[in-house]
Amino acid sequence: MNRDILDIIEQEYVLPQPAIGNPRLSAAQQPMARPYRLHEAISVPIPRLSKMLAMVRDPVSGEYCGSAEVSSLKESNPMSLLRSSNRPETYATGSGTQIPFQPGGISEAVPDRSTDPITESLCTVPDGFERGLFDVAELQVPGLSEGIELAAERYGEDTEVIAETIDQGRDDSEIDELVEVSEHPDMRAQGKDLQATRKEWAHMVDVAAGFGNFHQLVPRLARPFPFELDVFQKRAVYHLERGDSVFVAAHTSAGKTVVAEYAVALSQLHMTKTIYTSPIKALSNQKFNDFTQTFGEDNVGILTGDVKIRPEAPCLIMTTEVLKNMLYRGADVLRDVEFVVFDEVHYINDLERGVVWEEVIIMLPRHVSIILLSATVPNTREFAEWVGRTKKRDIYVISTSKRPVPLEHYLYVGKNRTGNELVRVVDKDGTFNTSQWREAYDAVNKTRPGTGRTAGRQMSERQGATLW
């Protein structure tokens, strides 16, 4: 066939035409300014499949055993921790386009698919299973049927009655062992069906009982200390090893920071992260310097309103307001956080800033363990109960009965008749020593040159009722 005839056939019948033959429609036709390609006319978009075939291999040998249908759709709940990550530059700070993660203690909403006949089976039959939920009575326990028949022959009862009795007794015993219920006094006469199910989330730890078997329960510490830990520190370390949340309500200078340091070391051992929060930036800067000397520069970062240093570090120190913004902006770093330390948590009682602590505690994900540190919370049990009830987690309250480091008060009096410059007026038990105070008063009760008043009178006027 002549080449000219092939070109005519291709132009007339194969290639798309820039205009339609109808003269009325050709006036409205606008030819495209790009060249036409035949494969574009026959291409179709790839549909999104809800399931795909995956190879099933033997977990030991790795041999191919078959194939199974698995779901190819991504996580539908945007608040889930399994959702896709955002940009790497917003890993620590989050983004305004992201929504918060699912807060711990709040049950996730389950969509109602009962009205959809197509997806109704998705609620009962999981992917890879041939059937859905089954009744407990369908379970086949080895030797149970023979035991029921033997009991029926011995006692002359029906096998169905005996099986029902065994199932009822087994269910009741399992419930009694797994669920701890407390019976209300007003409900005791009404039977077991009216037992109260209120759970106590705060658990008071008795520090006075000691902790003699600490080294047996925790044989290898995540971070060794050059001194023997106090009892309340051992209790806190033990619960951190178990993954519990603790509230350390110890006296000032008792060593609450040791618990935070151990949490940082434990998270590094677990390849996770720890967030240390403080109410003011000055304290954050101080802890940043202290932790940098303890764990190294590469392992500690800080995030405040004006400072951002190593946000990818395993230990992040920040103010509570910064952590609140990270929670609301859905920062991806929260997936890797194991512990959150709230230093000076009594700031929650502040009228202006206390709401920040409440929001942060409520918004923390379920997998995060909470460490509360404070020396001035009077109602420790009540506060820990609120935290545990909010997060649906047990909180172990660890307190000290007395100040481990004694606190004494001295007065500087210069050289007195005994040669001492400092006179102790209040001892470690809080007892005011009157004779020592009189000695300090007499030591400074001398007229100074050029003044008409004695030094003792000047000291009394400066101190006022504080010293009395």
Protein model, in words:
Helix 7 (231-241) runs parallel beside helix 8 and helix 10 (320-328) crosses helix 11. This protein is 31% helix and 14% strand. It is α/β, with parallel strands linked by helices and 468 residues long.
Give the arrangement of secondary structure elements.
Blueprint: H1 3-14, H2 23-26, H3 38-42, E1 51-57, E2 64-71, H4 144-155, H5 159-178, E3 202-205, H6 214-217, H7 231-241, E4 245-249, H8 257-269, E5 273-278, H9 281-295, E6 300-303, E7 308-309, E8 315-319, H10 320-328, E9 337-343, H11 354-363, E10 369-373, H12 380-391, E11 395-399, E12 409-412, E13 422-426, H13 434-444, H14 455-463
Parallel strand pairs: 3-11, 4-10, 4-11, 5-8, 5-9, 6-8, 9-10
Antiparallel strand pairs: 1-2, 6-7, 12-13
Helix pairs in contact: 7-8, 10-11
GO molecular function, one term: ATP binding
Pfam families: DEAD, Ski2_N
Keywords: ATP-binding, Helicase, Hydrolase, Nucleotide-binding
**Sheet of most strands:** 9 strands, mixed
Outline type: elongated
Helix count equals 14
Helix and strand sequence: HHHEEHHEHHEHEHEEEHEHEHEEEHH
Contiguous runs where pLDDT drops below 50 for at least 5 residues: 108-122, 134-142, 169-196, 447-456, 459-468
The helicity comes to 25-40%
Summed over residues and divided by their number, the pLDDT gives a mean of: 76
Radius of gyration: 37 Å
| Residue fraction in strands | 5-15%
Question: Would you count the extended β strands for me?
Answer: 13
Structural class by sheet pairing and helices:
alpha/beta
Distance between the termini: 124 Å
**Neighbour order of strands in the largest sheet:** 3-11-4-10-9-5-8-6-7
